[in-house]
Amino acid sequence: MSSTPNRVYAARLVGLPIFDPQGDQVGKVRDIVVTMRSEASQPRVLGLVGEVFGRRRVFVPMTRVTNVDSGQVYTTGLLNMRRFEQRSTETLVIGQMLDRHVTIPHGSSNDVRIAGTVYDVAMEQGRTRDWVLSRVAVQEPAKALRRRGQTHVVEWRDVQGLTRPGGETQGATALLHALNEMRPADAATMIHDLPLERRTAVVAALDDERLADVLEELPEEDQVAILERLDAERAADVLEEMSADDAADLIADLPPETAEILLDLMEPEEAEDVRRLMSYVENTAGGMMTPEPVVLGTDATVADALAHVRNPDLTPALAALVYVCRPPLETPTGRLIGVAHIQRLLREPPSSLVAGALDDSMENLRPEATIDQVAAHLATYNLVCAPVVDENGHLLGAVTVDDLLDHMLPTGWRDQALSSSGGRGRG
């Protein structure tokens, strides 16, 4: 599929940076807003949905867009920072048009039509300088011995099915491709804004690991709503993919009988971690810690430590410290000997023992420590994570700075970031 200077395909537009007249990036493109007229009339592009600071989505009128190409979008004037709210007469190209089931002409006769799904849509600027949707990329269903169905790029007027409501007949393949290219927080923002039927289809198509990543970034209300619509077996599988502290917080928001059913369906080791976290008082070090820090034995070398922290599943905060303990090395561990900073280990010979580079200057947190005490502890020792130990010195887990922020920010802060109040301004 080629693009002319005044024709841009929607799937390629998503994620592009938006620049102001001074050349400073002010956001990213997340969707395209159009008004549908009829199947014979090309929809007019009203503007773009841009994501700016704080994951707020704003409306960028096409009258403010001075240039669109394969690498960036340029605007003129100031953007209205009021949150974008879709109107009933508007359609989102990425959120509502991709994956729609349509029919297109086949061969020389318009009487013969083939069915397929939309995987991209092109917009272009006409002589009047208005942008319209001009072409549709459609993929036929896969046939025997062929991995992918044949693709076609056709004029808008030749497509039937795009002006009717999508409903449950709309799939999720093309939108999934866009979501999988985003960071979990960005994907959560897009899923949060989808209509219920579309969101349900997308959630059903996401794999368990990706859905777990997205759930961790959604407001509690969305988390519960999505989890309750899954069958119990899959809900348990998704909870297993989540970090134990996030899974514990989510399960705590469910009805007790539902929570118990899901815990029983989870793998025993995963469920045990979650149950243990749920046994601590909310908003304490024990309640917010993760039970999966990097734990090493007393014979571990610096090379061993560096190999462990290369795990891509570790957050940067969790990878900042390693914990040397006596067996057992699964939390709750044997007695904690000490912690070592990765920054310090990078200056040590790979064959030397981690135990020879421990930081013995700081105290450990107890599970009953309050949020304020945890915050003071991290600030005092300039840490991004810290060990939590019991009265016998056994390592229970680690509190990270992101765990702390999650609990210090106001209740519903994720929802505020996704759904800040205010209508859309037209500029």
Blueprint of the fold:
Blueprint: E1 7-9, H1 10-13, E2 17-19, E3 25-35, E4 44-52, E5 56-61, E6 65-68, E7 73-75, E8 90-92, H2 93-97, E9 101-106, E10 109-125, E11 131-139, E12 151-155, H3 173-180, H4 184-193, H5 196-205, H6 208-215, H7 220-229, H8 232-241, H9 244-252, H10 256-265, H11 268-278, H12 285-288, E13 295-296, H13 302-309, E14 321-325, E15 336-341, H14 342-345, H15 371-380, E16 385-389, E17 395-400, H16 401-408, H17 413-418
Parallel strand pairs: 2-7, 13-14
Antiparallel strand pairs: 1-10, 2-3, 3-4, 3-8, 4-5, 6-7, 9-10, 10-11, 11-12, 14-15, 16-17
Question: How would you characterize this protein structure?
Answer:
By secondary structure, the chain is of the alpha+beta class. The protein folds into four domains: 7-86, PRC-barrel domain (SH3 type barrels); 101-169; 207-279, MgtE N-terminal fold, CATH 1.25.60; 295-408, CBS-domain (Roll). The chain is 32% helix and 24% strand. The chain is built from 17 helices and 17 strands. The protein has helices at residues 10-13, 93-97, 173-180, 184-193, 196-205, 208-215, 220-229, 232-241, 244-252, 256-265, 268-278, 285-288, 302-309, 342-345, 371-380, 401-408, 413-418; strands at 7-9, 17-19, 25-35, 44-52, 56-61, 65-68, 73-75, 90-92, 101-106, 109-125, 131-139, 151-155, 295-296, 321-325, 336-341, 385-389, 395-400. The strands form four sheets. Strands 2, 3, 4, 5, 6, 7 and 8 form a seven-stranded mixed sheet that branches. Strands 1, 9, 10, 11 and 12 form a five-stranded antiparallel sheet that branches. Helix 13 links the parallel strand 13 (295-296) and strand 14 (321-325). The chain starts with 6 loop residues before the first strand and ends in a 9-residue tail after the last helix. The model is unreliable at 1-5 and 420-427 (pLDDT under 50).
